Amino acid sequence: MGVRNMSIKTDHSFKKISLAIAVVASVLSMTGCGKEEQAEKTAESAVTTVTAPMAANVTTDRLIAADADPSNWMSTGRTYSEQRFSPLEAINADNVAELGLDWYFDFPTNRGIEATPIVVDGVMYVSGSWSMVFALDAKTGEMLWQYDPQVPPEWAANACCDVVNRGVAVWEGKVFVGTLDGRLVAINAKDGSLAWETMTIDQSKPYTITGAPRIVKGKVMIGNGGAEYGVRGYVSAYDTDSGEMAWRFYTVPGKAEEPFENPVLAKAAETWTGEWWAYGGGGTVWDSMAYDPELDLLYIGVGNGSPWDPAIRSPEGGDNLFLSSIVAIKPDTGEYVWHYQTTPAEAWDYTATQHMILADLNIDGNDRKVIMQAPKNGFFYVIDRETGKLLSAENYTTVTWASHIDLETGRPVELDGARYGDGEVHVVSPPGLGAHSWHPMSYSPDTGYVYIPVQEASFPYQQDVDFETSTERWHTGVNMEIAGLPENDKEIRDMVNPMIKGHIAAWDPIAQKEVWRVQFPNLWNGGMLSTAGNLLFQGNADAEFAAYNATDGARLWSFDAQTGIVAAPITYTVDGEQYIAVAAGWGGVGALATGAILTDAKGAINRSRVLVYKLGAEGQLPDPVPVKRELPTPPVLEASPEELAAGHALFSRHCSMCHGDRAVSASSVPDLRYMAPQTHEHWNDIVIEGVLNKRGMVGFASRITPEESSLIHGYVTKRAHDVVNGND
Ligand code: CA
Question: b/e map of 257-282 (b: 16 or more CB within 10 Å)?
Fold first, then answer.
């Protein structure tokens, strides 16, 4: 362990390219990414008692003053401003080379880890996959308790993007987590016992919760996901003591002939046409929120349309409010105040759910209270957070759907060829995976830069002429099979190929320009942390956890994390000593759907752990257990080339989201090329009948026919033969 400089890989293997398209696509078909790996609980994991007298003692006063209390990391963005900057400087650019591993904690699962840990008065609260919550001694790593909300494994089939959770909220002795199956759970911080739980969704619909709750004045706010499956988005507020719902704000209007839940939805409905409600509409609030205590405004980031293609959900046009918008609401009542829509008539999965940062910037000589966001669509927005007025916007990466944002109207100026309603394939940047996804940014008031984990990619959009509305499979209106069939179309592959990478951008939000970047060979790199020690921390897809000089991006330190990292780091102190922590572990949609793209990268392996560092520590991780696989022994291949092509198309639609593009799994979900003979024998029992339902591999009887199942089996068998024949 210790200091090590990794050179940046620049090779682009063919394998990587073909999969890249799928990545980009977030080719998410409806599959049940399973729970098979979930470890059984051991006796040691039983509840023990925390001795702290006032566990999770977070209050309004403490949160408002959080900036002056850098020992703690009391809410997901550290402060209400969500800047993810720490004033701590004991660990700094001069001594970071002495940083070493102090302790680590192994999660009992090996699915995706996306959480930002919370630290309050020496106790760390962190969520893992399947919405499990852990309380750890922040100094030693000793587990104080764990809480498993027992998410039904088959609910994974409703999750577009892995069974992840991006963190908890803590408040006055309780720890709050939203569960994958739609519950909001309040846990007693002192001992891990259940305080209350409430169902926040209609469970007849494929909603999920993966985002971290936010807490404002004794109300806990939570949204949900599901826009890829035809749901209607909203955010709800619950009383932290009783669990009673205080208000709910829907982000898109419901059925036109029924009364709107909120007067502003009548206005929003004027921007929709046709019978949008029959498709759900989308607009889920699946990740970002921020609160300004001075203005008393809660900002929510709203997601993409469902389906993606606006010609289906709103056939006569319209902006489709409040899709892809930042909406300001009153946290006491849920009353609408203002909105800014980043992508009118959204068509490309361009959510505005990305991280929002509140800051005070001097722009043209005026002090402005701003909100900053780098949503999926590739533009960096600086918005007046009192009024919602756009102050500036520039593209922070390659953008081919719009030339610029018109500052007079606040609207994008779209480019010809960006929309795909003509039946042709339109390769557009950024892709639905986003030029920037949920991975948190960081804003350093010291350097004045916003650090953005940028993704470089594009996606071939084509209208799905066979679209049918359904909550049982991907519901985009876009032909996802193209994305999964790159080898069938060299022209498309060559267009999408050149730009599958990622980087850190140090972005000057006043000048609206990139100052420097740190280039990576892969996308799906981790969230950011900046500190007053002039440091920037980030984990990446290549299994590194690294520190950079926050001023110039020089690489100062790195650690072999044995796993890809996507979550954001934090820092805190216990007994006056500064620690850096990150919840490590590979997963999420960028990992699951990409298959082979990351088999070159060390990040392909998931080892789910909390890693905690301090100066002078010399801890070691146990040696990694090498992944060993026997050559598969597939049955005789009987499918014709036409049947293989049909099987591949079906695989892309229904299976690739969890089992990876071209059946290469770079995650803990089984790699189907290596199936055992008995799995081949029982293929239809598993795929159609669902005999592995309890392990998260749901039956697909309602989605595909036995004939289609056999075609998919033929394709997977072919892929096993590819391995045997060494031409994979
Ligand atoms: Ca989406």
Answer: eeebebebbeebbebbebebbebbbb
Query: Which tokens belong to 116?
Result: 């930002």
* Confidence label for 53 from pLDDT (cuts 50, 70 and 90): low
Query: What are the structure tokens assigned to 135, written together?
Result: 């309380």
Residue 278, C-beta contacts closer than 8 angstroms, at least 6 positions apart? 469
Write the single-letter amino acid at 476: T
Q: Once rounded to an integer, what is the mean pLDDT over residues 361-368?
A: 95
Task: Show the beta-strand stretches assigned E in 168-266.
Answer: 169-171, 174-178, 183-188, 194-199, 214-216, 219-222, 234-239, 245-250
Q: Which residue has the tokens 């072919």?
A: 718
Ligand 1 mean position, distance from CA 339 (Å): 20
Residues 6+ apart with CB under 8 A from 419: 347, 426
The rounded distance, in Å, linking the Cα atoms of 582 and 515 is 26
Lowest mean pLDDT: which of 132-141, 461-470, 548-557?
Answer: 461-470
Euclidean distance between CA atoms 219 and 236, whole angstroms: 10
Q: Is the pLDDT of residue 43 over 60?
A: no
Q: How far is CA 367 from CA 81, 291, 449, 512, in A?
A: 16, 19, 17, 16
pLDDT for 498 equals 55
Q: What would the two tokens of residue 65 be?
A: 């003053």
The band of 629, judged by pLDDT with boundaries at 50, 70 and 90, is confident
SS3 637: coil
The reported pLDDT for the residue numbered 653 is: 78
Which segment of 108-112, 491-495, 540-544, 618-622 scores lowest on mean pLDDT? 491-495
Query: What number of residues does the chain have?
Result: 728
User: Which are the catalytic amino acids?
Assistant: 349
DSSP 8-state secondary structure symbol assigned to residue 603: G
Q: Please give the residue that has the higher pLDDT: either 589 or 357.
A: 357
Structure-token pair, residue 91:
């660990």
Strand 234-239 and strand 245-250: the pairing is antiparallel
Query: Cβ distance 240 to 172 under 8 Å?
Result: yes
Nearest in space to 572 (alpha carbons), one of 73, 182, 55: 73
**Cα of 225 from ligand 1 centre, angstroms:** 8
CA of 179 to the centre of ligand 1 (A): 19
Q: How far is the CA of 549 from the centre of ligand 1 (A)?
A: 34
Beta strands in 114-218 (DSSP E): 118-120, 123-127, 133-137, 143-147, 169-171, 174-178, 183-188, 194-199, 214-216
Residue 518 DSSP one-character state: E
CB-CB contact of 442 with 536 (8 Å): yes
What average pLDDT is seen over the chain?
88
Angle at Cα 103 formed by Cα 100 and Cα 105, nearest 5°?
A: 135
Residue 98, judged by CB atoms within 10 A of its CB (0-12, 13-18, 19+), counts as middle
Most confident of 27-41, 150-164, 197-211: 197-211
Please tell me what DSSP assigns to residue 155.
G
The strand pairing partners of 504, in sequence order, are 453, 518
**Residue 284: Cβ within 10 Å count:** 33
**Span 399-436, pLDDT tens digits:** 999 999 999 999 999 999 999 988 888 999 999 999 99
- Give distance in angstroms: CA of 308 to centre of ligand 1: 8
pLDDT of residue 19: 32
Residues sharing a CB contact under 8 Å with residue 707, sequence separation 6 or more, in sequence order: none
The 3-class secondary structure across 9-24, one letter per residue, is CCCCCHHHHHHHHHHH
d(CA 23, CA 21): 5
Give me the DSSP letters along 44-99: GGS------TTTT---HHHHHTGGG-TT-B-STTSSTT---EE---SS-TTTGGGE
